[in-house]
Fold each of these.
Amino acid sequence: MIQEKDTICAIATAVGSAGIGTVRLSGPEAVAIADRLFSGKKRLSEMNTYTAAYGQLADEEGRVLDEVIALVMLAPHTYTTEDVVELSCHGGPLVLRRVLEAAVRAGARMAEPGEFTRRAYLGGRIDLSEAEAVMDVISAENDRALSASLNQLKGSLRKEVTELREKLLYETAYIESALDDPENYSLDDFGGRISLVLDDSRQRISKMLREADEGRLLRGGIRTAIIGRPNAGKSSILNLLLGEERAIVTDIAGTTRDTLEEKTMLGGIQLVLIDTAGIRETEDAVEQIGVKRAMAAVDTADLILLVVDAAEPLSEEDASLLKEIREGGQGETPVLVLLNKNDLTTVISVADAKSLLEKTGYSAEEGMALEISAATGEGKAELERAVHELFFSGRIEDSQERYILNARHKEALETAAEALSRVSESVDAGVGEDFYTIDLLAAYEALGRITGETLEDDLADKIFAEFCMGK
Ligand code: GDP
């Protein structure tokens, strides 16, 4: 442990009026500093780890600040791996600020954002992917994102990446050992062996990359645009989707203008309904098809819900809207055609919609159609299943075992995959084994960026442990 670290403090709970608010201290002086403010039956410095005491906090002039419970946790088994004291105060903003100020005057420094977690990382308790998971747990807005983040916090991503890295390192170390000591390490048939390792590693990386895309949707929700001609029932579908859950309305500053987004849950999947303000305005029949407005929403969407009025024949407008999307910048975005108003006598069938999709160039995976009634709610379950199918190939339930990959992880994985492809090319080209190691190490290093590990120390340790026994 690094000894010269200072002691940091921060209000650890949300600011606002609440029953309890916590001021947290971490560092070598955490207990001593808290003791300067605290008076109870015992000194905090006499307490065992993971014990709590009731007492009063007072500033240096003896002015009582609050009644508190002080929780003492001693290094190294704490969140930060340092000594930690948590002061559970009354949860008023002023109380907490006074306690924080007193802690600073008593010798602590105000923590920077994320500094407690950074210390956990520097202390070696968690790796970078776990540090990131801490933030994901805190910001999780739905059960699936939360369970995936918790898994990552438990080390699911670290484990996967570490396994991959160990394999690559083993091969690198083997090559280097063989070049140094050809009598004991043979490189005969090495090409065949390493090809197996490369194939397996690349497959695992591809799988992780696929999950990276799903992770973004899990974390941020599926950005969904509802489009269709006036009176098709867009607002009604919106209301059906929002149901009781309608609540979080956020103004998000877009690049060109402000858009309104509303979040809702559909069978455990979070949908972010884009530009719902625009949808409401198109209720005004005077406004034409609203293509421009719809397109702006479509541009950033992961999913497009095209609402058609199934009680009327498919119109030119429906077809041209679909065509416009397909040929526009978002041609790859999956489309679900919702044949709305199926509580009435309908004249459009799912087959009709499918043939329109097909005619416009959508494959069965990219475009689906289903009947629904915004009025009765019938078909909502099918919509839910279709969304599962489109985005998670129907298999979202295994989120217990997953993790949430972010852009940084994704980039590292892509770099690693490219490096491994170069090794395969070298193997195919039949160049010397010493050429492999550069790219193997590049992949190893790229993967190490995910967990935040360093390269050289690891390599040295590994070679030492695996190959130099007794030497
Ligand atoms: P928008 O212009 O596309 O937003 O369409 P609205 O949601 O305002 O709906 C237009 C009209 O269709 C309204 O009178 C709705 O009550 C009606 N409507 C919408 N969905 C349904 C449905 O599923 N069944 C029936 N019978 N009427 C519907």
Amino acid sequence: MKLLEEKILKDGQIYPGNVLKVGSFLNHQIDVPFLMNIGREFYNKFKDENITKIITIESSGIAIACLTATFFNVPIIFAKKTQTLNLADDVYSASVHSYTHNNDYTARIEKRFLTSHDRILIIDDFLANGAALMGLIDIVSQAGASLAGCGVVIEKVFQGGGNALREKGICVESLAQIEKMTDEGEIFFV
Ligand code: 5GP
């Protein structure tokens, strides 16, 4: 997606640990009309898949998933990262290693929201090593739901998660694929 690449080049900041910050439109301030375009792109890629629900992980995935869901006219479910009092005990869960915080957390979705009749599209902002998507895929399979695929806004291809998932036969669609980032702040797309 050309416009997305242009926005990354214009606003993206590279931090230690190969972390790209795009806080001006995706991770902090949210450019809603632009995310509508992103949602439309995901819709065009998965529109024939009879999607019944979109799953993401809090917090940055939520806005992207919501705007994507307006095209599919389906609900979104976001996996919670903490066990809050208002979260039921009856949950599907998966342990995930956080790329940006370098710790492990448990992603949880209440069982009542996911059934074996569901056809799922997973959405996330970034794909690095693939841990977040693997956790969500695990939850989808615990529910016996079927997975149509994963839609990612920015894939850092050099970190290998996307290709590892594709080798397992999972459909992963990324709207921008970064081949390389340098300490000097250069970003190269595939
Ligand atoms: P993975 O689980 O694939 O290693 O990392 C993906 C998750 O970590 C995403 O949910 C995203 O929130 C976060 N993440 C990974 N790399 C980056 C990055 O370069 N920038 C930002 N903002 N988040 C990232």
Amino acid sequence: MHADFQSWVAARQSHFEGVLRELLPRPDIAPQRLHEAMRYAVLDGGKRVRPLLAFAAGELAGAEQTRVDVAAAAVELIHAYSLVHDDMPCMDDDVLRRGKPTCHKQYDEATALLAGDALQTLAFQLLAEHRLNGDAARQLEMVRLLAMASGSRGMAGGQAIDLASVGKSLTLPELEFMHIHKTGALIRAAILLGAYCGSRLEAAQMDRLDHFGKLIGLAFQVVDDVLDCEADTATLGKTAGKDADNDKPTYVSLLGIQGARDMAQRLHREALESLAEFGGAAQRLRELADFIVLRKF
Ligand code: GRG
């Protein structure tokens, strides 16, 4: 990682931690245990890839930082809720997340369920109560975009397909369809929401950003599958080897490790091509694409 990019990431991550601390309900306000669990699930952990993508897209569109902070927080709250629910016994049944006990292990299942629910609704509350765009209709479009990305035709739908595919063999297009929804939709939304906070881009430019998001979201998942096989639990901060243990179809089970790596490289290349027209303004997005594909955790 280039030193300038590294320090940008570190500065954004630390700034964003403060933003989240402020936006989450205080732990001393009733119901304390629920608020504590929400903060436990969100704070002090995670790579913050989606917020970083929102920041980079916001920079490209000349957005005010305070606006992108809120949009990025909304996306991260949805992501955190999805991890809390995914880790529960009715889904992936895991005990470790972000190097800590999962939310239902630290608290209890009912609290984890409610914490996830409340994080999800808080995300939409934030989008509704902060001024994120001078044009109210465009801000409403942002709310719709996040709802679509999170719901049955986005992340939750992808998760449903994932749960139904355990023990089955999927074709490559079927696997791709699942991941474009489960992982890709929110990554795509992060980029578009960041851009929405800035000055209006042409429709064709938004399409290019969306295409970039689609490709890099898929690359993120392909790399995730490779890491699940190759990295250890301590490095990942979550249980390694879960996919094979759960008999889940993955890019590695379909293409082999080298095939999956080649696919990630191809997606990476195509993602960068879709940014060509933006020139230097998309430099942070390019660096994030590199990070997503080259990451080791
Ligand atoms: C419960 C509706 C619902 C959806 C769950 C995101 C998800 C859908 C499940 C998580 C399981 C998983 C391992 C998905 C694959 C890729 C992924 C989203 C990994 C976790 O995201 P990172 O690596 O996590 O960005 P951090 O902790 O860094 O934020």
